[in-house]
């Protein structure tokens, strides 16, 4: 189920609640069952869903026992809706503040993620985003593994009028990353985005390379680029990257497509890392800033 449908289904369950004669335990259970199955069909992790269900139940019970509903169904309905809203926000909010690039500082941002997840596209989008907000931005292409990676960076960076660094001849990604970051630091760039390789196979080598690049460029923030369309696999992928790259933020791409998105949401909880942006298309400006509460409001809007 795509996220828009998830919102519609939860809203449908709320509407159903208004139609029942009395809002009692049975009505609450029926609502929670519907919300839970909608979340599961959107690929949200089963444990997270079970947890949400029991927390909403406990909150509603405590509120009713304290007399907050004043014995009225309408108040009870609001209490239930608010409890579900709050728990949905918590699903996408690990309570950790992501790093924010600072003016007059060479902020190094390293992007990691598997090939095809949209890393290179996202690096250009990020550079454009920060450039527009007054931070002098650039890109270093440290992907020497995929033939054509540097060409892709060159093309998209040129289109976006973003300075870039890379090499057709140098084969050591650590050396390219170090050279590029050093050059741009000297030139007083404020956001230096390092795009790394995302090879699919040879995972241990990929992770080793990421660690080495990290040691060479000392990123202020490492960002995991995660494709929403991989569904439940997002959680395991995020965990594996967290162990070696220890990223501080997540960007979920391809949210414009038919992705369920719940898998990526579960990745937040599994790694206790905030989502900072959503990729919502193939174009340079198709990047939405992510904040938990507005996201859930919009989902249910
Ligand atoms: P990389 O291998 O991780 O560097 O991935 P690329 O940046 O080359 O992207 C792979 C494909 O996904 C390309 O066709 C991109 O245009 C596409 N892509 C990246 N981000 C998005 C997004 O947010 N939405 C959509 N629809 N496509 C995207």
From TrEMBL:
<dbReference type="GO" id="GO:0006616">
    <property type="term" value="P:SRP-dependent cotranslational protein targeting to membrane, translocation"/>
</dbReference>
<keyword id="KW-0963">Cytoplasm</keyword>
<keyword id="KW-0733">Signal recognition particle</keyword>
<dbReference type="GO" id="GO:0030942">
    <property type="term" value="F:endoplasmic reticulum signal peptide binding"/>
</dbReference>
<keyword id="KW-0547">Nucleotide-binding</keyword>
<keyword id="KW-0694">RNA-binding</keyword>
<dbReference type="GO" id="GO:0008312">
    <property type="term" value="F:7S RNA binding"/>
</dbReference>
<comment type="subunit">
    <text>Fungal signal recognition particle consists of a 7S RNA molecule (scR1) and at least six protein subunits: srp72, srp68, srp54, sec65, srp21 and srp14.</text>
</comment>
<feature type="domain" description="SRP54-type proteins GTP-binding">
    <location>
        <begin position="274"/>
        <end position="287"/>
    </location>
</feature>
<keyword id="KW-0687">Ribonucleoprotein</keyword>
<dbReference type="GO" id="GO:0005786">
    <property type="term" value="C:signal recognition particle, endoplasmic reticulum targeting"/>
</dbReference>
<dbReference type="GO" id="GO:0005829">
    <property type="term" value="C:cytosol"/>
</dbReference>
<keyword id="KW-0378">Hydrolase</keyword>
<keyword id="KW-0256">Endoplasmic reticulum</keyword>
<dbReference type="GO" id="GO:0003924">
    <property type="term" value="F:GTPase activity"/>
</dbReference>
<keyword id="KW-0342">GTP-binding</keyword>
<protein>
    <recommendedName>
        <fullName>Signal recognition particle 54 kDa protein</fullName>
    </recommendedName>
</protein>
<dbReference type="GO" id="GO:0005783">
    <property type="term" value="C:endoplasmic reticulum"/>
</dbReference>
<comment type="similarity">
    <text>Belongs to the GTP-binding SRP family. SRP54 subfamily.</text>
</comment>
<dbReference type="GO" id="GO:0005525">
    <property type="term" value="F:GTP binding"/>
</dbReference>
<comment type="function">
    <text>Signal-recognition-particle (SRP) assembly has a crucial role in targeting secretory proteins to the rough endoplasmic reticulum (ER) membrane. SRP is required for the cotranslational protein translocation for ER import and preferentially recognizes strongly hydrophobic signal sequences. It is involved in targeting the nascent chain-ribosome (RNC) complex to the ER and is proposed to participate in the arrest of nascent chain elongation during membrane targeting. SRP54 binds to the signal sequence of presecretory protein when they emerge from the ribosomes.</text>
</comment>
